[in-house]
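Hey, I'm writing a tutorial for new members on how sequence and structure tokens pair up, and I'd like a real worked example in the thread rather than a made-up one. If someone can provide the structure for the chain below, I'll link this post from the tutorial.
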Amino acid sequence: MIMTNVLDKIFRFFCILLSLLIILSSIFMVFTISKPTKFPEIKIFDCEDIVQNIKNMEMNMTSIIYVKNESGEWVESQRLHGEENRIWVSIDKMPEHLLNAFIAIEDQHFYEHKGVDWKRTGAAFLNWLPHVEILSGNQGGSTITQQLIKNITSDNEQNASRKVREIARALALEARLDKKVILEAYLNTISLGNGICGVQVAANYYFNKDVSELTISEAASLAAITKSPTAYNPISEYEANDKRRILVLDFMYDQGKITQKQYTDAKNSKIVIDNSQQGKFEIPINDYFVDTMVENVINNLSEKYDCSIDTATSLLYNGGLKIYSTVDTSIQETMESIYMESKYFKQISKKDKTKHIESAMTIIDYQGHIVGVVGGSGEKTVNRGLNRAYNVPRQPGSTMKPIGVYAPAIDRGIINYNSKLEDKPLENYYPDGKKGPKEWYGYYAGSMTLIKALERSANTIPCHVLKELGIDISYDFLTNKLNMKYIIDTDKNLSSLALGGCVYGITPTESAAAYAIFGNNGKYYKPVTYYKVTNSKGEIILQDDSEGEQVIKPGTAVVMNKLLQNVVYGSQGTGRGIGSYSKMKVYAKTGTSSESNDLWMVAGTPYYVGSVWYGFDKQEEIDDQAAAANMWKRVMTSVHKDLEVKEFDLSTEIETKKYCQYTGKLAGKKCTWTGQGIFVVGVEVATCDGKHTSSSSSDQTTTKPEPTPTPKPQPTPDPEPDVTPTPDPEPEPDGDTSEPPADSGDNPEGEE
């Protein structure tokens, strides 16, 4: 027993000695740190980095996504954050009683000390000794300044050396920063449970309020959390929090920070938890637009600031960014609702019975703003998973013809709206030397107008035109003008660039952006998900200020718009099923890859361009050849339901001239069979030499090779009538009899 008492005294003596040494060393640091002008070269425990982090607010902060409401006002939609959920708010926007609540319970001498409360620190050291309790358990030895340092550095070791570092840093911090700055940083970094950092998010989370609206009682409730965010959580440990809340109010009253009446009213008020905002802004699974926006912002940050993807990702989730998004929430909700309906995705894979058919869709406006996007069917279960609309390319089939061939060829005067072309096979098209490509309707039609070539989606004609245009010109247009990043060198061939048989292909987002040039007078806008992105200080770091690039002439865009309207309204148009989506016009192109493995519908209205892909993730034949068109129509009918009817805002840079109906060229003096056609202003078009022999006129008659293959029957794209009156028809060849009668086995959607 005597031996035990001796050892106890020796232990206490060494503890007291150690405490004194720490205090003395800390006091010494006051004189070396608190006067930085005399000792600018001294750097104690990275205190300068801590100071800069506070000044620049370089701490993990929650990013916020904003959307426009029906009134066109920006409203908060969703929050993005890493492990820490923090929104920085100026101390000037915090109520005075909130500041007083934290000071009263955590550091009542905050405005008096210079970073360290020596009395409390000494008492805290002595409290370590056995059987000694000098400092009340309601307040620890650390000041607000010291707690701030722990919040920023995560230096939480439980030993004496950590305490020395903390004291040194606190003294240095107070010598360099104003008390107001320190208190603001503290209140924005303090842990308040449930992954929340800072009083703004805590006010949102627990009370569904802005921090400026907190009552004295609610402020005391938040201050009560700090001792132990788990033990005093207002939701899970309501009674413990309420008991400590009253203690905070006691401290506030005793220290003269509130009046008797304020104290009584606050003490008697019942704390009402309202965490409904949690479900509104804290969304565990993002929708496809947010996923797309996250990828878009990360990539653009990385590109603009020449940083790694990891660094850009960290900035997005932890940088306190404000992202003003392009989404139209009503359109996004419409798309998601339709894509949740399993009736559109009934076909089951023959290769894997657990997989069903899929689809994806992107809708953009004519300035490249993505207003809605869905990357798959059914319920979304993961964040930043497979997004078929944004980063999964598929073979585009015949949707490649207008962008890879016809538009650049018209822009260069190689063909025009009125051109007469030949539907005939190319020599040595296939690797084995055979002629090709095959026509999906089973025969080669001979002489055909460009109007009909697009309307029926002929295969040989774009190949002939591409040979004249040049593979390199087409490739450059697709990759450098239309920014199709999945088109590669291996695609420099007729099959890929004319018919869409690419190695990888394009995405619905790329497709929608490319087709927008036919509705906005030839300007390409890179698809984007935001108007601007600001940092935590409100400075713009990304902005959509693009004026677009004129990739084809305005007149070319008008001609393509008119040609593609015939795909919908022509009697043999492959896209005629979508014509009744609205009273407004629409231009469109369908696409089907080899073996009917991928279906597409890309179409533009006076408001938006929508691109739909439909198929299996692992390619196999699709049963319903009208599925992509039906998805487009289902979505866009709903989107346009309440929109004001309007026309395309098209350029006037086209002109009407007389042309030869034998050749499609400008009519020469010897041309006797002419009509009025439309031409692009400024594009030189060849003039017919007038040599119309009987043999050339015989080209008007179509001869089908024998035997004629009969295409297999396919579902009609839509139960609407096959023929829709053509709206405001442009001048067409007068008395043109060059086209064959419609074949009874014609399949509107099944082109190669």
